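Hey, quick one: can you model this chain's 3D structure?
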Amino acid sequence: GVDVSLWLTVPLTILTAGFMIRAFIIFHDCGHGSFFKSQRANDLLGIITGILAFTPYYRWKHEHAIHHATSGDLDRRGVGDIYTMTVQEYLAASWWKQTGYRIMRNPFAMLLIGPVIVFVIGERIPPAKGKREIASVWWTNLALAVIVTVMGLTFGWKNYLITQLLVLLFGSSAGVWLFYVQHNYEGVYWERHSQWDYFKASMQGSSFYKLPAILQWFSGNIGFHHIHHLGSKIPNYNLPKAYQENPVFHVKPLTLLSSFKCLQWRVYDEANHRLTGWEVLKQYRQKSNTA
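Sure thing. Here's the predicted structure for all 291 residues.
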């Protein structure tokens, strides 16, 4: 534990975070009704793994279904995704909204501070509507309150809280990173609703994140994200098989090394159909001043 050695605790919490990510992918598949043939079995395991991941099952299931139905649609952003502004939206926004967006899209806030806040605090707050989704939040909160109390009293509050927060930090940060690179990469598909196409949104709006074998295992094959978005009923354990058997899925992969380039993307340049960094704002302002 923490009292024995912090240097031993940190690598063990990283390993535990890896298992938490894998549990989250199982939770995710249960939300799609794909992990088991039985919907009841999916819901039961989804609730259990959701508690382990500090995430209410039915609320997340509902929001994630919206994400799948709206991914790559510029007119239906904002639910179950990492919010991305277009250049024109950013330039037209108030200074305080621009500031908030800059903070939110900063890698330190988005990948380190934000994920912990979302999973520890954000997921504890019930939505405004949806009887089942609201109940899901309260029952998950109750289960977590019992677990946290028992763990704290059993192992000591200091030991438990430090360990649990480290697991959540490493696990949620890696999870948000995975989600980020799956929809924020060079050449990603974004289109207005009238021109939006589900096949293109899946195949061009979701990356094929080719990870080393050990990371692919811990992330539950979620790197085959283009296949997952095209057929969300395919369970994670069958995604590699689907890739191997269908040449249409053999798209250009995003590797672990090349994925770090994704950190530079901040806004979507709708006129040129590309993600870009803050530098493009200066160009648009200069065009506006000379027009």
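One thing worth noting: Residues 4 and 159 are 10 Å apart (CA to CA).
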